[in-house]
């Protein structure tokens, strides 16, 4: 009985620990970029190319990973993700050129696909009445890890020490996962797994739109998928390139530039909890538009009037208003718009986010170099995509009033 009682908590612990390490994995190349440049005999363009491979690895495995999760179980899928992450980490040490590094970085993208496909359903099945809050803590664990990473980099200068330690931690998580019995049930496609909820006294029928007021996949669905891309683009590009912005544009030391990521990550950690409360009291599109507009405004200010103080403030703003939970708000809306196709639209929405991991760094390789102006151009693209996302949100907001089943509090 005790094992059954604590089993959900143990499942959650393995999931959160996995994402804690993964949060550092996604930034490890940019945080130790100088060492990797020497190790791989490359420059900042080469580093950007390596980072873009995360997106390709994610894109080519995301659909297959979802099938694996339903067919072979959540635990096995998570283990595949953990092993892929270990291959990535150890492969970075073994790589002696950009081509090898690109190959091993594909495994980090694959790890993201298998982790998401196994972990989120596992949490939902372990905590069917608390799925939204339990899933939101995944982002909190990643933000906490990214907050601490710059301090680890400052304390441990050698990446050859950090990567094996991270690999060992992931291997221990694999062992822990095999010691826990996961639920065998598949994810219930009707069960709400996100923060936005209808009133508890409403019947199942009232959760669905009346005939004639159905959201259209070709308009509302596509628009929300675009939003999934723009939101991810905003915070992913910022987290990857803000250290280089600090060194080239502001002439900061490498340590001071990397601390900007800590401001970003700490702010996103705080936002996870605040946004989960705000979204229960406010109209979802209002929250997304306000958050994205603020993020876009500060990106424009940062590239127009670059200063150390403004960049620090922008790091806090992007962390809170872009990386702290509004992506999940969009996922909530598209899941409720198309309840009978929740798995499919969730896959599309996640696919759009995965696309940013490739498109952003890949486009940057044609622009970026060691000059300040090139970094201004990179962040100008980030700001443009963010503003475009706000425009799409505004368009969908004017359409959403007919879908009262989504937005009534």
TrEMBL record:
Signal peptide: none annotated. The keyword Mitochondrion does not apply. Residues 11-401 form the Major facilitator superfamily (MFS) profile domain. Keywords: Membrane, Transmembrane, Transmembrane helix, Transport. Pfam families: MFS_1 (PF07690). Its main location: membrane. PROSITE patterns: MFS (PS50850), SUGAR_TRANSPORT_1 (PS00216). It is a multi-pass membrane protein. InterPro entries: MFS, MFS_dom, MFS_trans_sf, MFS_Transporter, Sugar_transporter_CS. SUPFAM superfamilies: MFS general substrate transporter (SSF103473). Belongs to the major facilitator superfamily. This is MFS transporter. It comes from Companilactobacillus keshanensis.
């Amino acid at each position: 009985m005790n094992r059954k009682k604590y089993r959900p908590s143990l499942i959650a612990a393995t999931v959160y620990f996995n994402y804690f390490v993964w949060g550092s994995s996604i930034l490890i190349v940019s945080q130790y970029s100088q060492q990797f440049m020497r190790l791989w005999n490359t420059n900042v363009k080469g580093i950007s190319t390596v980072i873009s491979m995360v997106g390709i690895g994610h894109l080519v495995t995301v659909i297959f990973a979802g099938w694996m999760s339903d067919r072979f179980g959540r635990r096995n899928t998570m283990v595949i993700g953990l092993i892929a992450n270990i291959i990535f980490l150890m492969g970075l040490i073994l790589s002696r050129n950009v081509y090898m590094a690109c190959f091993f970085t594909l495994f980090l993208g694959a790890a993201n696909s298998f982790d998401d496909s196994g972990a989120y359903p596992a949490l939902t099945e372990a905590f069917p009445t608390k799925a939204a809050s339990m899933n939101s803590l995944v982002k909190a664990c990643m933000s906490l890890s990214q907050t601490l990473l710059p301090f680890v980099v400052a304390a441990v200068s050698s990446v050859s020490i950090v990567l094996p330690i991270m690999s060992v931690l992931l291997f221990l998580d694999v062992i822990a996962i095999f010691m826990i019995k996961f639920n065998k049930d598949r994810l219930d496609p009707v069960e709400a797994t996100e923060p936005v909820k209808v009133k508890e006294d409403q019947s199942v029928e009232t959760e669905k739109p009346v005939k004639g007021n159905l959201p259209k996949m070709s308009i509302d669905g596509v628009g929300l998928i675009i939003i999934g891309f723009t939101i991810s683009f905003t915070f992913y590009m910022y987290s990857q390139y803000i250290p280089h912005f600090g060194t080239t544009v502001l002439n900061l030391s490498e340590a001071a530039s990397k601390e900007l990521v800590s401001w970003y990550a700490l702010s996103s950690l705080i936002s996870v909890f605040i946004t989960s409360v705000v979204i229960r009291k406010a109209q979802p599109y209002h929250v997304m538009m306000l958050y994205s507009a603020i993020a876009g405004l500060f990106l424009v200010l940062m590239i127009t009037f670059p200063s150390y103080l403004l960049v620090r403030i922008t790091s806090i703003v992007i962390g809170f208003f872009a990386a702290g939970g509004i992506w999940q708000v969009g996922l909530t809306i598209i899941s409720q718009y198309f309840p009978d196709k929740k798995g499919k639209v969730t896959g599309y929405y996640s696919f759009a986010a995965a696309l940013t991991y490739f498109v952003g760094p890949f486009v940057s390789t044609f622009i970026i170099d060691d000059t300040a102006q090139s970094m201004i151009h990179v962040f100008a693209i980030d700001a443009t995509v963010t503003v475009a996302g706000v425009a799409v949100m505004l368009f969908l907001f004017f359409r959403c009033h007919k879908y009262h089943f989504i937005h009534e509090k």
